[in-house]
Amino acid sequence: MPITWSATHDRQGLDIMDTEITLRVDGADHRLTVDTRTTLLDALRERLGNTSPKKGCDHGQCGACTVLLDGRRANSCLALAVAHDGAEIVTAAGLATDGELHPMQRSFIEHDAFQCGYCTPGQIVSAVAMLEEAATGWPSTVTFSPPDGTAGEPDTGPVDLATNPDEIRERMSGNLCRCAAYANMIPAIQEVARS
Amino acid sequence: MRPFRYERATDPAGAVALLARSPQAAYLGGGTNLVDLMKLDVARPDLLVDVRGVTSRAIEELPDGGVRIGAGVSNSDLAADPLIRRRYPVVAQAVLAGASTQLRNLATVGGNLLQRTRCVYFQDVSTACNKREPGSGCSAIEGHNRDLAILGTSPDCIATHPSDLAVALAAMDATVQTVGPDGSRAIPLTELHRLPGSEPQHDNVLTHGELITAVDLPPLPFAARSYYRKIRDRASYAFALVSVAAAIDLADGQVRDVRIALGGVAHKPWRATRAEDLLRGGPATEERLRRAAEAELADAQPQSDNAFKIPLARNAIVRTVLDLTGTAR
């Protein structure tokens, strides 16, 4: 695919490589010109004004920037916007429908599953994606039983999260919470997993 | 981050040709390590060639009974694949032991193998590091080296290779398929990564522009009973202090074949061939396993803060293989 370039210069006289991309964010199409260095996170926050994904570490270590990228959860701080031209993105702000909070958002409120709230949008997007992954039969390290000398057929069916908090802890380990509100996140997620 | 041009390749040959335009060019897969290193000013490509649309995203059976994994397969899809889970569970387990789902969704198989060390000095441009800047020295040898290598180190570098997947693939005798300016070739996984020696800037044997297109797993029926044990400072989302990928083929209580590879101990996935050789042809008892593990680790050279890795690796080998034999604790 040919890409049209327009090179300008920044204050140090270095080339800035701009390119035009399209992003569909929370159901709305946006056309924007980005420097190739722009991450998806910066494009969302600084260019499109969607401050729902948060910049925590900016190095893929905390998960505060988690969004659904073409249906899968991803750290938007490590994704270059130019590499995701045409992508469909859902942020925590886009989970609500017709003014109704997503069940996961309601459950986080009901269970007091946050303190300062900075990591919460990432936690909620991650939890929503996790339920989908478990329903699809995606395993985690917890899903694999330790070996007992036998080689059985793997169970590739849906993974039950509602009754297995260890699965939730493992699958949510990419989202850190410095207030350590984890204790209430587990029941909040379990409740949505049950319904 | 320094400015760079971005190009999307449409086929492997085109990708190789694009990359040849600049000695500083780099392939872009999921970007989870590369983009981070660019933010840290450790990686300074002037051109990124996006290869996500170039290499296969399929996992297919090979005519010889093995399995071919396209280099563009995401880490998540690899771990969830029913064929991989059934025939090579150690591979799925190793992938799932690394990173988080968010990262595994972005990360590719090819990129996983080519990720750089997480040695803190390599990632910090204010310090000396022979891998990042050849000839500048190694800050780790007299610095914080608790996480670093005990086997195959050199006076110039004690970094470890961070991939979990590569450890499992080394145990399985996987082969890496590449295409580059000089054509295509197949490289045994155990020969893809290298020991640091006096050139720690080279993590692997790939030449500039050489692109991983697939990873082939050979048929290995006994790998259906295999396991990846990762020991780390927290239960999840951390790099290995020590990890073990193992598979065992027992017949009448005797070890007919066994595969053991270690992670977190060397500049490359460490295939424990010495231990394997000692184990074949006898029973898989705790005593024999301990002796085999000790023989494998006999040449270990610990640094000031990581001598604990020697007994840890020994115990991890013994426990992991014993568990596979079904020996009760």
TrEMBL record, chain B:
What InterPro entries would the database entry show? CO_DH_flav_C (IPR005107), CO_DH_flav_C_dom_sf (IPR036683), Diverse_Substr_Oxidored (IPR051312), FAD-bd_PCMH (IPR016166), FAD-bd_PCMH-like_sf (IPR036318), FAD-bd_PCMH_sub1 (IPR016167), FAD-bd_PCMH_sub2 (IPR016169), Mopterin_DH_FAD-bd (IPR002346)
The UniProt record lists the keyword Membrane = no
What molecular function terms (GO) are annotated for this protein? FAD binding; oxidoreductase activity
Q: Which UniProt keywords apply?
A: Oxidoreductase
**Does the record's keyword annotation contain Repeat?**
no
**FAD-binding PCMH-type domain segment(s):** 1-222
Mention any Pfam family matching this sequence.
Answer: CO_deh_flav_C
* Coiled coil location: none
Which PANTHER family does its entry note? Answer: OXIDOREDUCTASE, XANTHINE DEHYDROGENASE SUBUNIT C-RELATED
Q: What is this protein called?
A: Molybdopterin dehydrogenase
Organism encoding this protein:
Micromonospora craterilacus
